[in-house]
Amino acid sequence: MPTLQTLHRHLRWIALAAIVISVLTWAVDLAGVVYTCPYCRSQRTVIGLLGLLLLLPVTALGHWAVRWLATVLAVFGAQVASRQHFGGWSKISAGEFAFAQKWWIDPFLLSGIALFLITGLVLLLWSAPVPRQRDA
């Protein structure tokens, strides 16, 4: 189980993985392989943007503007993912739920994964150790 220090040590790789996930899912969408879904598009965009913010220099990660922007993006993305995921739970409760033919691209599963990614990325940004600035 990775510790928080391990995650911080590999912050750049995690950020690059988030960007790769975003780019690959956008490519699959734009290639017409999956349904054009505004929920999915906003979630994958937020994941990519959070990845880009995590690539900023370590000194910038503690700046209030970076944290504010990351938090706003994460709240938006998490809200969209939660809404989409809750739609699946609503169908389950009504007895109408069925996985997509290709279960690995089922919106119910993917929205749950997106919610975990978005929450994890913003918490990682907020917990990143930032070197203190010396007063001049």
TrEMBL record:
> What domain of life does the UniProt record list for this protein's source?
Bacteria
UniProt KW keywords: Membrane, Transmembrane, Transmembrane helix
Tell me the organism's taxonomic lineage: Bacteria, Pseudomonadati, Pseudomonadota, Gammaproteobacteria, Lysobacterales
Protein's UniProt name: Membrane protein
Annotated membrane-spanning segments are 12-34, 46-66, 108-126
Please report the organism this UniProt entry assigns to the protein.
Stenotrophomonas ginsengisoli
